[in-house]
Amino acid sequence: MNSSRLLGGASALAAIALLGACTGSPSAAPDTGKTQVVAAIYPYEWLAEQIGGDRVTVEGLLPPGGEAHDLELTPQQVADVTIKGDLILYESHFQAAVDSAVGQGVHGTALDVRTLVQNLDTTESPDGHDTETPTDAHDAAADPHLWLDPTALVTVADAVRDKLTAIDPAGADTYRANTDTVTAALTAVDAEYKAGLASCDRTGFVTSHEAFGYLAQRYGLQQISIRGLDATVEPTAARIAEVQDMAKREGITTIFYETAVSPAVSQAIARDAGLRTDVLDPIEARPTDTARGADYLGVMRANLQSLRTANGCR
Ligand SMILES: [Zn+2]
């Protein structure tokens, strides 16, 4: 064995230890001293910003207005997940590219949001058009869209607070206070949904993809989705015919579409049946049309208004 190589190795280790000591955090990433959070989709990006405040920098992997399900990562983004990020917020079995990056091993802490909330069977619709019933929390068919239930996001907020506190104990008071604030805001939105959807002419609503199962379950609505859980899989002609039949049977007034997916099918169904179209945003990406809500809370409120109008709520 060569002693000069040993010495070189020891010096490098000392240099890394020194670097770690200088940043004052467990992270060896060259940074601003702030905790680096990398979030796979916008709701978790927003949550980390609310809770981390000035003590964190948050990088979202999904571009504003982007489509979450078939997200592809650049080599730089993969490195941000594996090397740069102190905390990675993602959901397993949702975005294959993110699963793959996390699977390479991460320098920081990866928080799989899916493990925090019981994955519900949200796939039942009024025609009994069920997809596979998920049997465990890691079932690939389980519904990932839990952020559309604001009370589920409260559970995620608590976990983000705890992870940030473990990484940066000096920020504990800040993280606790900010989590209390965001929890109050989410709880207020939940109360608005409950009150706003309590007295309506109908409970059914037609969505572009099956993103609103958690929301429907919490507020007693019936989701009729043109596409399945994955927004990128186009519907069959048979499914479109089923949706048309159900829309007629349920007295649907509005066919919802979303901005990240082509509205062509939604528009065609609406045109054939003489119905309106409107946006119902699954809030997977940061909003680009800020007139319809500038952040998670704003878009949730815009969605509530769209549902109330469509369903004749008083
Ligand atoms: Zn989706």
The CATH level-2 architecture of the largest domain is identified as: 3-Layer(aba) Sandwich
Number of helices: 10
Catalogue the ligands. Answer: zinc ion
Poorly predicted tracts of residues: 1-29, 124-140
Order of strands across the biggest sheet?
A: 2-1-3-4
| Oligomeric state as shown | single chain
Q: Structural class per helix/strand content?
A: alpha/beta
Shape: globular
CATH superfamily of the largest domain: Nitrogenase molybdenum iron protein domain
| Total number of strands | 8
Give the CATH topology of the largest domain. Rossmann fold
Main beta sheet: strand number and arrangement? 4 strands, parallel
Q: What is the terminal-to-terminal distance?
A: 81 Å
Report the mean per-residue pLDDT as an integer: 87
Strand content: 5-15%
Quick one: CATH class of the largest domain?
Answer: Alpha Beta
Helix content: 40-55%
Rg, please? 22 Å
SSE order in H/E notation? HEHEHEHEHHEHEHEHEH
Number of domains as seen in the coordinates: 2
Would you kindly provide a written description of the structure presented here, covering whatever features stand out?
With 314 residues, the protein is an alpha/beta fold. The chain has 2 domains: 26-190, Nitrogenase molybdenum iron protein domain (Rossmann fold, 3-Layer(aba) Sandwich), CATH 3.40.50.1980; 201-311, Nitrogenase molybdenum iron protein domain (Rossmann fold), CATH 3.40.50.1980. 44% of the residues lie in helices and 11% in strands. The chain has 10 helices and 8 strands. It has helices spanning 3-23, 42-52, 75-84, 96-103, 150-167, 172-196, 213-219, 237-249, 264-273, 296-311; strands spanning 35-39, 56-60, 87-90, 109-112, 204-207, 222-225, 254-257, 276-279. The strands form 3 sheets. A 4-stranded parallel β-sheet has the order 2-1-3-4, with helices on both faces. Strands 5-6 form a two-stranded parallel sheet. The chain has a two-stranded parallel ribbon with strand order 7-8. β7, α9 (264-273) and β8 (276-279) form a beta-alpha-beta unit. The radius of gyration is 22 Å and the shape is globular. The model is unreliable at 1-29 and 124-140 (pLDDT under 50). It binds zinc ion.
